């Protein structure tokens, strides 16, 4: 009997372990050094080294050798990285993958950009990014698709197919699609520069550099997923912005063991050695390793626009695991040490305040993390400074520094006056918060429980407008949604106040009124926000659209969000489907332009729209201004990129407009009445 009981227990334990025992970690590593149909002057040296460096790093992370597929030229035993072989390898990997698995897709080599008229979604700059396989060829310098390339839409289709199987997919692209922002026929910059013993090769080609030839029909068809899958299980890292080039050079610098490596790949492997817990930790480590190398390259090649790495997706997810749940929702900002001071890459626009309590983190070479409390000493719009805590002053110069807030600042919290505790289940992203008002005179809103009749909210603060002072919602769920929307609105108003008087050169946003396919009128958003008390009423058949235009010569951190007449948060840019918060670089000659439909702004009732933009800082984490949506609460869908350094007067290089639309609406309806 006892033996039978032990057998039952053993079988139960086996069943419990089954869900994780068969979850696998797999990787596809692709390195293209040789473009066999192109001149050898365009070939690269490092991709073959990159895939082997990544393979060794993954083995140390627990991947098994049979689960790492390698396609690379110049690597013994590896298949050649031709376009057909790459698609076939992706298909095999997809077929082997099952729910709960983790997949890494890694690509190292050249990229280019061209206008793809068949692409369903058009980028703001109108261009499509392409990775060049070993056999790339075609009639180039026109809008025709290449042969022997993998397009950005192809990669997206493969990623969607993995996500549809509940596979966590991470992608790394140590490539770029640069040098073709100006698609002229003039001479292209050299691919290789510098002495033979310390040569730097640049990844990213103009289409005019490639040899023309008979373009074969595109026979490769990536999988089709009819419905877009939420990207809670997705991360991607890129070597540069789409208009930049990225180098390969001998790394580590001045080391006898140095050999040609892609800069992103080397930094990624070095950062992995510090045992990061999340993808954000990994990316922050990459960012910390870039500046010394970039500074050296800037001195050697002063006319080159050097890269800033890119990251997107659920960066707060655990590293190399299949989990859509973030390890932490508290922001962590990188910091730079100078003597006994720390400069933080976050400020008022991110929800930090003077004298705010924070926790300083220092990550050592072996991955050990040291922590100590501190307080913000000085603060500006985009930066803050504090003293290095005494307990951390003895740490070596190689430590990576970061700062995280202890709690939300009191100034941003929605203060609620009530006779009972706040409802359970309130959920907000930093810095928005909801607290009981200690002093009734300081309350922003009054909440009254009406029993079976619902809950009454009365606006007490001017920030919530005057169209209606009260609303009755039917249940606790509606009450939570309304309180969370009010807390977000208070933060949006503070954001607009922080940025008041700022101006972002080369950035324009305009509200347009359309009827069918005809634009009727347009007004600049800044003018609408400063002159008009509210957006004008629309006539029958009219709709509002927002037109955003960037000619600044820099990429921008851009957030467009709103609160509709029902009090629900509305994501415009980035949206819940996975769009990015980095708006592409544009110039006066080639502007980056995008229009957004705002159907929720067309309906009756009071609604708000915020447009917020700043120049993208190079080698920095995302700036989302503390703005989130209901969709983003479950999916940390962000994109981060570097950019051109802001102008000397960059502290006031900021655009902010908070618009209000008023309209008639009935009071007291179920979660749809006029809103405080």
TrEMBL record:
Signal peptide: 1-23
Any one of the GO BP annotations: proteolysis
GO molecular function: cysteine-type endopeptidase activity
GO cellular component: cytoplasm
PANTHER family named in the record: METACASPASE-1, METACASPASE-4
Span of domain Peptidase C14 caspase: 26-273
Listed Pfam families: Peptidase_C14
Record lineage: Bacteria, Pseudomonadati, Pseudomonadota, Betaproteobacteria, Burkholderiales
Ranges in coiled-coil conformation: none
Naturally occurring in which organism (per UniProt): Variovorax paradoxus
Protein's name according to its UniProt entry: Caspase family protein
UniProt keywords, alphabetically: Signal
